[in-house]
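queue> pop job 88
queue> type: inverse folding (structure -> sequence)
queue> payload:
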């Protein structure tokens, strides 16, 4: 399978970006990069600490700076679910490679997230995961070159679905979609 440059997995918290990313990277012989870990290293604090001490907007700015500093090849990149909240961050990711949205239904997201208070999810005070989903879901679709449904799938099934989507002949139209998104 011929895959060029990087693969960027976006989606809601709990969609499997990191888990799928690690297995996909191994299967393709790529490196794996978890942007949440990059943010923690750059900021010297855990994600939840950044959110609690500095607030959501400062967190989103720190995340965007970390993403815009990325420079890599042949890497599966797993940014945080809030990466779509900053247009500059997404423009950089789109330039790095193919952006794949791991789509889940709200019901599936809610069933997968059990540590909401400590997970480091960028949410405004009083927001629910449902609110976050309704805001971000259209953004994931807007920025993705490919959308893969991960509902009801095992890790192995999702990895295989992503590999098949990346190998599909219609990938040739990705650059056309990039032009539409960036215009």
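queue> result:
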């Amino acid at each position: 399978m011929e895959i060029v440059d990087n693969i960027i997995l976006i989606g809601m918290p709990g969609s499997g970006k990191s888990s799928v990313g690690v297995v996909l990277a191994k299967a393709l012989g790529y490196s794996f990069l978890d942007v949440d870990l990059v943010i923690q290293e750059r900021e010297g604090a855990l994600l939840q600490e950044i959110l609690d001490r500095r607030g959501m907007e400062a967190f989103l700015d720190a995340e965007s700076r970390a993403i815009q500093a990325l420079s890599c090849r042949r890497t599966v990149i797993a940014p945080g679910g809030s990466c779509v909240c900053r247009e500059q961050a997404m423009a950089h990711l789109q330039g790095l490679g193919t952006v794949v949205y791991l789509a889940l239904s709200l019901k599936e997201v809610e069933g997968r997230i059990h540590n909401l208070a400590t997970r480091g999810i960028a949410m405004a005070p009083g927001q629910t995961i449902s609110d976050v989903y309704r805001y971000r879901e259209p953004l994931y679709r807007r920025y993705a070159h490919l959308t893969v449904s991960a509902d009801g799938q095992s890790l192995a099934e999702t990895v295989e679905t992503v590999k098949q989507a990346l190998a599909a002949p219609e990938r040739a139209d990705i650059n056309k979609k990039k032009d539409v998104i960036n215009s």
